[in-house]
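ok trying this again, last paste got cut off
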Amino acid sequence: MSTQFVYIYKNIITIEQGKRSGKPCIRGMRIAVADILEWLATGMTVEQIIADFPELTPTDIFTALQFASAQVMPQLT
């Protein structure tokens, strides 16, 4: 029986129990939001990331940044 992933943010960020220890990933792939953040933090450009992982899109990368930001910034109401 296959495990279903669940979209948790903007129809791009997903969580699937048992995949990447339940970390938020991109569109059900094994690429975690944390991976993208680390690549950007080490100086990779969006273009370099996409060259290494052509299954990603610029929208995937920017959505990962938005998701991470939403996790650390307090919600203003």
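PB: full thing came through this time. The radius of gyration is 13 Å.
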